[in-house]
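Dataset card, provenance and construction

Sequences and ligand SMILES were collected as paired inputs. For each pair, a complete structure of the chain with the small molecule in place was predicted and serialized as structure tokens. The example below shows a pair involving pyridoxal-5'-phosphate. Curators did not alter the output after generation; any descriptive sentences attached to a record were derived from the structure itself.
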Amino acid sequence: MAPRHRAWAEVDLDAFRSNLQETAKMAGAAEVWPVLKANAYGHGAKETARICEEEGIARIGVGDSGEALELRGHGIATPLLVLGTVIDSELPDMLSHGIEVGVHSELRARELGALAANSGSTLGVHLKIDTGMARLGVRPEAALRVAQTIAESTALNLRGVMTHFSSASAGKTASGQQALFVSVLGEIRDAGIEIPSVHCASSASIFSEGDFIGDAVRPGISLFGILPPGVAEVAHLRPVLSLRAQVVFLKDLPAGAPVGYGGKWTSHRPTRLATLPIGYNDGVPYRLGAQGRGSALIRGTRCPIVGAVSMDYCTVDVGHVPGTELGDVATLIGRDGVEEIRAEEVANAAGTIPYEVTCSLGARVHRVFRGGEAGSSIRPREPVA
Ligand SMILES: *Cc1c(COP(=O)(O)O)cnc(C)c1O
């Protein structure tokens, strides 16, 4: 029987739970605060947040107020932190729902303090220090003053001091940033301000030996079974995502037939073409279509994606896969028999990073969740239907 969906993403919640546990082992005594921004990097925020709650996670990081409110709407009660910043119009909701935010300037600290005081509530904040990323955060020389402003406000509650490293992997930049961060922490403490939680490490630092970890870590990508480029695999992480589509059309092609927009690929022998109802709107990078850079697995065999990837469809050469039928499952990310395509491979082929690959899964792609029962990560997995 043909699969139920045109294109779907299987999200293995047992693998997610197991990666969470592996990441926690690497973090030692530090708390693990999973980062589930961008719909958990495309995997599904509410489902992964539920696993986090079952695992007793103390705090979850999100990207903006909308993501925080969505999790609250789904009954997630774990403290939430908007990692980057919020804009003015997001502030009232943060106050009324008790969602913590990062503070990256003196102005924002004063503004938040006044707003919170007016509404008679207190707001948990994390002071964000810019140690070299330059994107957001208080410059180190201004950090103490902002920390004092927060400490003096009766309506603000300093929950943590944080920074974010600009190098995805350990090395000179990260160690320079780490040293700067540690010296700013010292200044704040010397002024008599208590810091409940120091946090700076994303997946790269957690999995790089010798990196400064602090009281809590903020892993994102490792929870999905992917390590940032250049970080050695020192723990067993399991890919969480598989991306699949069914074959909706098969066509025999003569030699010399151009395929797809712009005729960018031409068959050099008589072959068979399978059309998959999944395109760049669904998360298959456009650049995979150039001259067989990308692959799909059909019947456990690698098949090159040929011709330009279009918005809704892509085409693969199945001339070497006997017996291909309509309704066959094509795997664009994931395992089929002994063959596997990892998100890292797709990213390399498309000239991007694995983060972008999983975040690009489109809204039309059905999410099919597997596993997730408490303790189920140690049970053998059911075979994929
Ligand atoms: C996204 C993000 C993280 C998680 O980074 P990974 O590389 O996915 O582990 C941590 N901290 C902040 C501030 C982030 O924006």
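Derived descriptions for this record:
The pocket of pyridoxal-5'-phosphate is lined by residues 35, 37, 83, 164, 202-204, 218-222, 228 (CB under 6 Å).
Residues 376-385 have pLDDT under 50 and may be disordered.
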